[in-house]
Amino acid sequence: MDLKQIIDGFVIDGVITECEPFGTGHINDSYHLVNADPNKPDYLLQKINHHVFKDVPGLMQNINQVTSHIRKKRRMSDVNDDKDSVLSLIYTHDGGLFYPDGGCFWRVFRFIKNTVSSDHAETPSQAYEGARAFGSFLTDLSDFPGNKLAITIPGFHDLKLRLEQLSQAVPTANRERLLASKDLLSFIHNYADDLLVFHKLTLLNRIPSRVTHNDTKFNNVLLTANRRTACVIDLDTVMPGIVHYDFGDGVRTGAVACEEDEPDLSLIELDQHRYEAFTAGYLETTRKVLTPIEIDHLPLAGAFMAFIMGVRFITDYLNGDIYYKIQFPDHNLQRAANQLHLGKIMLKRKKDLKTIIQYHV
Fold first, then answer.
1. What domains are there in the chain, each with its CATH number?
2. Average pLDDT, stretch 217-246?
3. Which of 40, 297, 302, 318 is the most buried (most CB within 10 A)?
4. pLDDT: is 48 or 119 the higher one?
5. According to the model, what pLDDT value does residue 25 have?
């Protein structure tokens, strides 16, 4: 792997003097390319994980289409059209969106300087700013035809499929792991029907399909040094979905103070102030495009996303930890317990969450 050769394959403005590993992402390897001229942009070089994203051309066309669409809309409106408010892809010298190299695939974005990301909203104002960014992203793409996008991960948030994968994992699971999972499997069995409501409504076409981000963890929005919104990032999973995926994942991470592998379940809390701030920011930017039935089911969205993450973690645990990186043998079991407990908390507070949402509609 010759990084200089790869970098030279892209239309870079200036001279790159440093190439530093960047970020803590688990999917793509990233490098910060530092420009010799401080008046010219830095860049972000990424190796695309083609084992996770098997259709690299489709993935990159998705990103190119949605960023171009958002940029055009913002230039035509009074909305901030700062060049760094939307990710900017850098083309190869032959006009390509990625650079193939020995079976690997590389891409380059303009690096957005003087920004930070956080796994959780540290304050209600941060939750509000992040939610506005995610909401604006959905609204800006509300008139983009989803059938133009490739499906980068089939069945990504399909709970029925995830439950089937869990059922397939049980018969072949290690006996000790199966016993350790007994209570969590019972919880999943008891609550699955309630949370399959989104699958059923989608099949009945009662909830509209939208172009959604599908991975709105709070660390996928960049904030400026004064904690104002800068840019929504990590667009690899942008494809047709429903609004509840984005709102749900946002509150799952943005309105909870602890990590998703916190072992002490008593520390897992849904912060009402941050939840309300996230809701206010999200609905401020989406209420004009959402339908009544979409809004009516938003209170269940956070529980749904926590539940589906719990199902995925426990499935991987029973399969022998083949998907998620782990730091110790029961890491996925701990993650599953955490997320299912969070889902339970959100289900218990559904009426309170509905009141908050209705207030901000």
1. 3-113 (3.30.200.20), 124-360 (3.90.1200.10)
2. 91
3. 302
4. 48
5. 58
